[in-house]
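In response to a reviewer's request, we include the raw inputs and outputs for one of the modeled complexes. The two entities were modeled together in a single run.
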Amino acid sequence: MDKRMTPDDIAASIPDGAVLGIGGWGSRRKPMALVRALCRAPARDLTVVACAGPDLGLLCAYGKVRRAVVPFATLDSIPLEPWFRRAREEGRIALTEYDEGLFMFGLLAAAHRLPFLPTPAGLHSDVMRVNPELRTVRSPYPSPGHPAGEELTAAPALRLDAAFVHVNRADRRGNGQYLGPDPYLDDLFAKAADRTYLSCERLVEGFAGPPQTLLVSRATVAGVAETPGGAHFTSCEPDYGRDERFQRAYAATAKDPEAWDRFRASAIDAGEDAYQREARR
Amino acid sequence: MTAPPTRSEVAVAACADAWRGDGEVLAAAMAPCPVLGARLARATSSPDLLTTDGAAVLTRDPVPLGADGEAEGWLPFRDHLWLVLHGRRHVMLGASQMDAEGRTNISCVGDWERPTAQLLGVRGCPGNTVRNTVSYWVPRHSRRVFTPKVDMVSGVAAADAHELRRVVTDLAVMDFAGPGRTLRLVSVHPGCTAEQACDATGFDLALPEGGAAAVPETRVPTGEELRLLREVLDPGGVRDTEVPG
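The model returned the following structure tokens for the whole complex.
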């Protein structure tokens, strides 16, 4: 079994209007090489579902995003994601803004092929106002303080056409291993998607380390690409930390059209090899 | 002779006091002063608290800012989200806007459809406020933050919340014991007056019985707290970058 693909082949398989989940969290272990490939690919009008960082930002910068489904967008060490911010302030993208727990339950529901999962998250907040499609559901069971059953938000399943996830190690069958401190929601993205594409720092013949580090099963994976530095400039512990200098340069492009043209031409449009050369400068 | 406490040290001790008596719950925080407050509380008044290394590790002891420590547990983001619903968590959140009833906003400024300033997004605020004990940290007490109406309700009002306990700022400590569960001035930090705190608030701040003159001073940190802050938890003085002089 060999599911190896190139990042460009993976990006080319994403159709216009696709609902795309992206793993990682903020500016941590984001599948940036796949995102960069998607920036170069023809796909447009995407719905991006993510605990978002520069993945969403870069796709916004390239005008690929019709809607973002997110609880936040951040670069962590830089609190606000500059290109997401700009896209919102210029009214260029639609937004489905969820609470983090509501968002995770949406992925959990999709992963379990349930239509929804109940949660108190969202109640009494403007998440209900700005997402008028959200419904509440009354528990059929009495609970302490709620003899008639608790009223809860019905987190709708976040089914994904495709998902991108970056891990430390993978095999050519599409099994993925994370070696850092946090799995984020990556396995849920993989399980919620019809087709998951994995990128990895290194393809291996077999896995070292405990089996609970094997986060993503080949049963959910359609394609795998070896992309050394593929999460750069976000962190990919323990292989590397965030490249703060490079991230600052990226962030500055949102307010400087000339810097953006340079960044785009040298770091994205010129392809992944050119990007990795830029990253090592 | 120990140097007298700075404003940031008073604020950190006030943050620490928010967790006093909480027992064996996660003391969660993001900004430097609340993170220090959580670890200081664990190191002094509230040793049963659980604290992290700022990432996915629950540390065996409260660790200095930015340091790793021996693990006693694992708490990746998904388990924070589990703990939010489970409830054994008292979090000190930030707020870009807060109204008198305790609604907060970290999402965006202006009309949500097309904001004048997109901020973080609601993050976990809605779920946190309905299921966890929540306190707030505002490093710059101003009318921009304390505003009559928030633009996007991220954290829910005190009346709808599980428990909104404390609001700590660079000027004062507040709670929600005002009329109709509104924001009330509890104490002002040494060097700050009740009038100053009220002037920096964009709505009428409830006062204790006896009015402005009856508002006490926030306690100053003990010698042991100052030693822990200065020599152990934050020798680099990150707290002073968040609350200067």
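As requested, we also summarize the result in words. Chain A has ten helices and twelve strands. Chain A has two domains: 7-98+158-276, 124-156.
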